[in-house]
Amino acid sequence: MPLTLPDRLPAIDLLKQENIFVMDTSRATSQDIRPLRIVVLNLMPIKITTETDLIRVLSNTPLQLDLTFMKIKSHTSKNTPIEHMQAFYKDFELLRNDKFDGMIITGAPVEHLEFEEVTYWDEMTDIFRWARTHVTSTLYICWAAQAGLYYHYGVPKYPLPAKMFGIFAQKPLDPSLPIFRGFDDLFFMPHSRHTEIRRQDIEAVTAPEGSHEGTHPLSIIAESEESGVSIVMARGGREFFITGHAEYSPLTLDTEYRRDLGKGLPIDVPRHYYRADNPDLGPVVTWRAHANLLFTNWLNYYVYQETPYNIESIH
Predict the structure, then answer these.
(1) Is 272 annotated as catalytic?
(2) SS3 call for 221
(3) What structural domains and CATH numbers belong to the chain?
(4) Is 190 within 8 Å of 167 (Cβ atoms)?
(5) End-to-end distance of the chain based on CA atoms, in angstroms?
(6) What is the pTM of this model?
(7) Which three-class secondary structure state does DSSP give residue 281?
């Protein structure tokens, strides 16, 4: 089934060239079906690229999805045309009274700052609180995963001596979970970050007295010997915190690497990414199949199977 996207969204033409089935709003309104409502808070600088990456991995489900793009009012994107933002994005304030079956919150290039120093932190925490009562299941990605764990559970982040940059093998710790249905014993995920969260801090989190979340509300469900904690689950799957970028396209790390080189920034060759570790030979793509499966399983088992038919019943 297709994704329903705003008319004229640039990703539509790009993805049709890849034989991915998408339809614009005009066509979708003629169908008598209750699509899943998914909202994306896109904090990445080059928003069109992130939109396309996310739509690509969401497109393999048989479910029909209706995507809405959210932006924060307290920050103006410098790398995306204002006309694009005005045409395809809505301020959080305009969506505050709406409910959604699923939500994705992306990473952001603000890792060097303490959370409270981020200029839009107050609005972010408002959205974090809102999502708990207005969304069935939320995916927090990279910086958003660290921010969500810090805000909801007090889990700190730590600076890394060097950027965690490359494709790293991840191990599912509970293969019986529906999120891992169809997974192999190992799967691969891109990482591109300067900070980390640590297992001991996550395991130390306990639920407040009277909470319905159990003694330990956070479950580490995937991790890597090289890149550390990979996926944390909370509230029975109503929240997933993913420290990597499963949604990345094959050339995203290459673009980041060459961008930093061009700026004269200290950057190592992304690990386990290029053929023979040689940028001139191009990347070996090892993560796309599991990335598609991850998003499909999330949509099926934690959104579609859990969300009420009457979306207003979400609480």
Answers:
(1) no
(2) strand
(3) 3-250+285-313 (3.40.50.880)
(4) yes
(5) 27
(6) 0.88
(7) helix
Contact 5, 22 (CB under 8 A): yes
Query: For position 236, what pLDDT does the model report?
Result: 95
Contacts (Cβ under 8 Å, ≥6 apart) of 176: none
Q: Which two tokens stand for residue 33?
A: 């079906």
Residue 144's closest CA among 163, 161, 166, 127? 127
226 is catalytic: no
Residue 123 catalytic? no
What is residue 232's three-state secondary structure?
strand
Q: CA-CA distance, 122 to 128, in Å (whole number)?
A: 10
pLDDT tens-digit series, residues 117-128: 999 999 999 999
Q: Which of 134, 152, 245, 290 is catalytic?
A: 245
Instruction: Report DSSP state, residue 213.
Output: S
How many angstroms separate the CA atoms of 66 and 5, rounded?
Answer: 7
Catalytic residue among 134, 142, 223, 290: 142
pLDDT, position 208: 76
Q: Are the C-beta atoms of residues 76 and 109 closer than 8 Å to each other?
A: no
CA angle 151, 154, 160 (to 5 degrees): 95
Q: Which of 111, 223, 239, 247 is catalytic?
A: 247
Burial class (CB in 10 A: 0-12, 13-18, 19+), 312: exposed
User: What does the pLDDT read at residue 28?
Assistant: 44
* Both structure tokens of 79: 């790398």
Q: Low-confidence residues of the chain, pLDDT below 50?
A: 1, 27-32
Contact between residue 193 and residue 160 where contact means Cβ atoms under 8 Å apart: yes
